[in-house]
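look at this:
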Amino acid sequence: MHVPFENIDHNSRLWVFQADRFFSDSEIEYLNLILKNFTQEWTSHNHVLESSFLIESQRFIILAVNESLNDASGCSIDKSVKIIKTIEEELHINLLDKTSVAFFVEEQIKTLKLSDLKAEITKGSITENTLVFNTLVSNKAEYLEYFKCPARQTWLKRYFVKSAI
């Protein structure tokens, strides 16, 4: 059962999928159609899931399930991955690669491979105040507070901790 994202419970479980490029306007139309159909029909062990989605910043797909009503099972999560893989194939885009992180730098979203992260922090290109898109948020409440936040408030904080001498 699809509900608008703004109406889904704040404790709803989230999955964030980061695209390797921006979605075009026509791709967003396609995503809205396919994801609305998916969330209307999404079930777990034949129980309807109250679910929603959001296309964030033309770069992220966020799926949400209100697990206070019915839990998302392994099979239902597999269904969500299947729809994401279908989207990847249809749009020739990567949504499942977890080897990059997105930042908001100079009014633009930029991505950086994790393997290059430490060097960019050392150069000062990324600071503890750089806004990061935190794809590790696990529920809507965390999304609202921590999806876009300074690097020091994410898993990246370990790179900015100064050791006491």
Observations:
- The two ends are 56 Å apart (CA to CA).
